[in-house]
Amino acid sequence: MTGELAKKIQEYEAFLEDTLKRDLAEVQNILKEKVKKHKEWEEVKQVVKTMNEFKEKDRDMVVRVGLDCGVHVTGEVTDFERSYVNVGLGYLLEMDCDEADKYSEIRMRGLKKDIEHYRKLAVHVKVNIKMVLLAINELQSLMLQNKTRG
Hints:
By secondary structure, the chain is an alpha+beta fold. The chain has two helices and four strands, in the order αββββα. It has a two-stranded antiparallel sheet. The protein has a two-stranded antiparallel sheet with strand order 3-4. Helix 1 runs antiparallel to helix 2 (97-149). The protein is rod-shaped and about 90 Å long. The relative contact order is 0.16.
């Protein structure tokens, strides 16, 4: 009986390590990426808002753009009507400020749904981990009872 319990405990521990913990790590990585993308689209909305404010005040905007490897360039934005939005896969679309704002809102709504889905999935995996840990604990206590009886 004790040998069977020990074998079952090992199976549960293997399932916990090989499956559940790996699943949780994958879900958390996906969730982190979705949150990062959501923040990027929030930044787009903020840039559009700032451009609209500068357009209304009728003045030039000085910007600093990172080129890569720590190199930055300073420039001026004089045209506040159009902007280029990265829509993915290396494609940029020219949009006016209202279009860019609406597009970023649509992308953010989709990402919010994805984030909520993956948060629920992470909770589900965590619940499964707890259940397996409780089962292991119960089996260990049964094994201990069997040893004290014998």
